[in-house]
Amino acid sequence: MYGNRGVLHNDDLVIVRRHQVRRWLVCVLEFRGRRRQIMRPRHFTELFFHDEAVALAAGHRPCAECRYAEYQMFRAAWTDGLGLSRRPSADEMDSVLHRQRGVVDGVRVTHPASWDALPDGVFVLRDGDYWLLYDRVLRRWTPAGYDAPRELFDGPADVLTPLSTVAAIKAGYHPVCGPFDGPVSSL
Length: 187
What we know:
4-stranded antiparallel beta sheet, 4-stranded mixed beta sheet, alpha+beta
């Protein structure tokens, strides 16, 4: 999967900003045979993600064009998870996500939660590492993929996935996660 946050690079292909727009999307790699030049000058910068759970933890949401069905499922789960009276527009969700994916002093904002309050598919931060909660075990994310699963940490979780997205996942949205290998081990 890949993400879009607008034009992040300059004409020399150097990343010069974290985002350009509030609309952060997660898209499929192939859609209707379209072909793109990667990091084409003055066009959006493609950000590649291991899976959808990583993209959602970063603050993205499903694209309404190439992932229309997932976008509609995300909207419905967002509505249910946040107890809204109507489904939000893309702009409304993007505005909320933009506030929730903030950075303070170069570090992403997180929120504490108990493990039993978290659904599978969310990311937590621990000692500078990123961990996916899936099948009630943790898998450390690395650039090469996920490490072998480990038992849950003691104490509360330091959740990286935005609160609204956590609510949508709890309400039934199932992000694409994996693949995974290896037996569960303890820390």
